[in-house]
Amino acid sequence: MDLLKLIEEAIEDERNAAAKYRKGAELAEDPETRSFFEQLVGWEQGHERILRDRLAALKIIRGNHQ
Amino acid sequence: MAEEARRINAAHYFYLLKEDEESLGLLWSKVASDGDETSSQLGLTGPLTMGEARADRCMVLHHTKGGANDYCLAMLPNLAAIEVIDRSDNGPSRQGWLRFLARVDDFRTLSLEKGVSLFGESTLLVIPGGGDGHLIEEAADLVGSRVNASGMTGLPIAGEAVEPLPDLGGAYLASDLKPSLAGGDGCRLFRFPAPEPSSVSYWALAAADPEAMVTNLFPELDSRLQELTRAASYFRQQRESIMGERADIERKVGALLHKQVQTTSDNEPNTGELENRISSLSRMFGLLATDSLMARQADTRLGNDLELLRQNLTRLMDGRPGSRDEIGEYLLNKYSAELDAVRTVARDLDYSRQNAEAAIEVVRTQVELLRAREEAVIQEQTKGLLKQILRLQEEGLALQVAAGLIEFVLIFYYVLLSWEHIIGSAAAEHLTPFTRMLPILGIATGAALGTHFLARSIKNKTWRNPGLWVTGALLLFSLVMLIIISVTI
């Protein structure tokens, strides 16, 4: 399996998870629950950023370097 | 034509992976929609990227103008760059830079909303040639203020953590450029500390003629640095993980070697447990070998990147005695240290691998010693058993001989007695002792030996036994002789 493709899928998963938690934050009625969902959104975005960063590095490292 | 004379105030570079055509297309269409006049070296139709035309240098493919800005789509050795270049009649000023940076922020926000993946970004503030001291300080102050700007958060994370520049008496590093590159003596490149957590790096250029530097030469250097930064960051993280793994393995190897081997019921070390240890050590050795391979790949990659950066720097920097090159020194020192760290890790991994190998040998020797001891015990037992069998065989042979002798005597006695009874004592007395004894001796010998040979033939399941036939013939001959003597008396 193409590992880069796998990371791309993982990025998509993180994005979907963040969207789900964002929706949870919107639907939450009490501040504590909202804050919890917002925290989850932040975590997922952080994961997405790390994965994007690593993906870019891997693409550059694996690419035909001149 | 009047626009041609307008001076460059600043430039911003959005770097993207060449293969990320979607992001490149999105950002370029966003940027190009701002332009009102378009020209290009290649046609505007067709794909934006040019994978097959890998330029060694920066190659501007598309160029459009809009208001005070020029927009270029350029291809670099491994990345694509969208250059946003700000021009004005009045020359550079803090206000002008701020307006330009706000415009760049808009592009960034829009592109991020569209899901564009940026590889990195750089801002280059341009000041008139000769290095206007006041404007350099303005630029440093502006960059410093952006470090703390709240709007900088949420950008793609930087390829590296913030790197405070060494204290050289200022908030930036400076390097003299070759006079031919940017309009004569006094042209200089400045580098500001990278603000965290932005991936934007900040530079300034003092040049009488900044066109070539801004459009081509600077992005060539900067893109190399962006790649090197990203690769170094990746390898740094890998290194940390490898070192953690190595420390864990070293600890486990030490623990395995010092752990008491469990003994069996007869107080002997357990071979199975030692074999399990070899298996564990082999697994660790495999991990170290993989880590070692990764470290060597990182070494090769960083070494190549560093060499390319050195070439880029040599192409741009003055290099004459007495010229200033703080940027080159800083970058080369920094990444040389990274490379050294990678090589140290590779060396450490080699030591660990040797340790693991030695540990495997130690345990294997333990197992071999144990096996040799077990084999010696088995050999001793076998030897005892063989001696016992030999003794039994000897005893069996003696019994066999005794039985044969008894058989012979009994047959001899009873045949003689029976024969004398049959022919009568008077007739027997007429015979010489030799004639009386000879056929009886033949019968007794033939019967005793024949029994032995018959038993052997039955055991070997074959009648091809010369002894059997000879004794059979002897028995027959003796019987015939006995009959003839009996008849002729």
Strand tally of chain B is: 9
Integer-rounded radius of gyration of chain B: 51 Å
Kindly report the greatest chain-chain contact and the residue count on each side. A-B, 15 and 21 residues
Q: How much strand of chain B?
A: 5-15%
User: Roughly how many Å is the radius of gyration of chain A?
Assistant: 16 Å
- End-to-end gap of chain A: 26 Å
Please give the number of β-strands of chain A.
Answer: 0
Widest β-sheet, arrangement of strands of chain B: 2-3-4-5-1-6-9-8-7
| Coarse morphology of chain B | rod-shaped
H-E order of chain A: HH
What is the structure about, briefly put?
Chain A is built from two helices and no strands. Chain A is mainly α and 66 residues long.
Please specify the SSE layout and strand pairing.
The complex is a heterodimer of chains A (66) and B (489).
Chain A lengths: L2 H25 L3 H32 L4
Chain B lengths: L6 E11 L3 H12 L4 E4 L18 E8 L2 E7 L3 E10 L5 H20 L6 E9 L4 H15 L25 E4 L2 H4 L5 E4 L8 E8 L3 H48 L12 H46 L9 H98 L1 H5 L3 H28 L5 H23 L1
Parallel strand pairs in B: 6-9
Antiparallel strand pairs in B: 1-5, 1-6, 2-3, 3-4, 4-5, 7-8, 8-9
Helix pairs in contact in B: 5-6, 5-7, 6-7, 7-9, 9-10
Walkthrough of the structure:
The complex is a heterodimer of chains A (66) and B (489). Chain A is mostly helical. Chain A contains two helices and no strands. In chain A, α1 (3-27) runs antiparallel to α2 (31-62). Chain A starts with a helix and ends with a helix. By secondary structure, chain B is of the alpha+beta class. Chain B folds into three domains: 2-216, no CATH class; 232-382, no CATH class; 424-488. Chain B has helices at 21-32, 94-113, 133-147, 179-182, 211-258, 271-316, 326-423, 425-429, 433-460, 466-488; strands at residues 7-17, 37-40, 59-66, 69-75, 79-88, 120-128, 173-176, 188-191, 200-207. In chain B, α6 runs antiparallel to α7. The radius of gyration of chain B is 51 Å and the shape is rod-shaped. Chain B starts with 6 loop residues before the first strand and ends with a helix. Residues 39-54 and 150-162 of chain B have low confidence and may be disordered. Chains A and B meet through α2 of A and α5 and α6 of B.
